[in-house]
Amino acid sequence: MSTTRVVITGLGIVSPLGRGAPATLQALREGRSGVRLITSFDTSELTCRMGGEVPAEALADAPRGQDRFTRLALLAAADATSQANYGALGLAPERVGSLIGTGLGGCETLDSSYRRIYKDGSTRVPPATIAWSMYNAASSAIATAHQARGLSYSVVSACASSAHAIGLAYQAILSGQADAMLTGGADAPLTFGIIRAWESMRVLAVNNEHPQEACRPFSADRRGLVLAEGAAVFVLESFENARRRGQPILGEIVGFGATSDAGHVTDPSAGGAARAIAMAISRVGANAIEYINAHGTATQANDVTETAAIRKVFGDRAGEIPVSSTKSMHGHAMGASGAIEIAASLLALNEGFIPPTINLRTPDPACNLDYVPNVARAGHAAVFLSNSFGFGGMNAVVAIRTAVAANLLPTQPDIEPQIQTDIIRIHGGGI
Questions:
Q1: Does domain 6-244 have CATH number 3.40.50.1110?
Q2: SS3 sequence of the chain
Q3: Each residue of 204-249: pLDDT tens digit?
Q4: Active site residues
Q5: Which class in CATH covers the domain with range 256-427?
Q6: Domain extents for the chain?
């Protein structure tokens, strides 16, 4: 077993809750939704005219050009590298990689191009259409912006994309393929064509009059998911490199599980999800998990299935573990969701509170866990899970140790005791 430890030293997040840690923390603490009526394009012909749209002010520094999902990714990466003191990383560029997950890629560019051709009758589209719409556009842009010349590619596994990307980046450092990784996810699916396609599936919640109340995970009156956009990017490096340069540590990845249902393309399996959870906790053990950020889409199928999967793995203890869906506040950002939820969880837990599941006012008897309803709760978690499950039966679960609670964990048998102490010393007890 590798004795390398993979830590998070930089975090950037752009979501419907705003850009950066302060905006995100304030919304999570207040239990405030970022879902609103969409203003970035004309929605008058759509049934669903609401979604988790990134506020215009959060995009003030966004680079020009590129698709919206790439611009969001670049903003998040800029914040993550700034926090990680990336310029002092001290590693060869060939040993640093870029691995970004996305479910839909440059759909803004494609939607615009299709409308030009099929609606407006144009015979031409912008020459950058292919370059901006390709799924690896964000990974490539981040690698270029930060001169990461090592292992770089994109992961596409529907709503599990960014969780897979983070897990694979973690494994790349463990295996020696890279010394540091820029990883996370980005998606910007709020386009006319994408919303119309989701409308046809009849799984979108529609509450144009009260959009902030639309997303209701685990509630008996849930009506479906709320589409959103956003990005979150992390700087991962070895513990030894962070210690060498005295870099504060935000958390540590301690497990990753990935499975396939190999079943129905849109109907999730409790068994597949449970196997991914079990893989993710195989090193730390079930008793170490003190919080779960659920996939929690507010669809009829997911919420019951995910509850069953958690109970399957944790047994009688399942009801004692706080579980929340922050999608109730920021919506479902498709392939970026896992990264956004890991960022939100890490920020909140390191600040000493558990984020809530808002709009949960009518408990569903089939969803019978502690979902931290409506109001944030004071508390820490030594290790938490982030669940991500995507269409096609794609399951990815990441286990993360929070820096602020690291002193609560026993020393792992394959980790030197001094290293266990140093993560607390370097972090300094605050985020």
A1: no
A2: CCCCCEEEEEEEEEECCEECHHHHHHHHHHCCCCCEECCCCCCCCCCCCEEECCCHHHHCCCCCCCCHHHHHHHHHHHHHHHHCCHHHCCCCHHHEEEEEECCCCCHHHHHHHHHHHHHCCCCCCCCCHHHHHCCCHHHHHHHHHCCCCCCEEEECECECHHHHHHHHHHHHHHHCCCCEEEEEEEECCCCHHHHHHHHHHCCECCCCCCHHHCCCCCECCCCCECEECEEEEEEEEEHHHHHHCCCCCCEEEEEEEEEECCCCCCCCCHHHHHHHHHHHCCCCCHHHEEEEECCCCCCHHHHHHHHHHHHHHHHHHHHHCEEECCHHHHCECHHHHHHHHHHHHHHHHHCCEECCECCCCCECCCCCCECCECCCEECCCCEEEEEEEECCCEEEEEEEEECCCHHHCCCCCCCCHHHHHHHHHHHCCCC
A3: 999 999 999 999 999 999 999 999 999 999 999 999 999 999 999 9
A4: 159, 295, 332
A5: alpha beta
A6: 6-244, 256-427
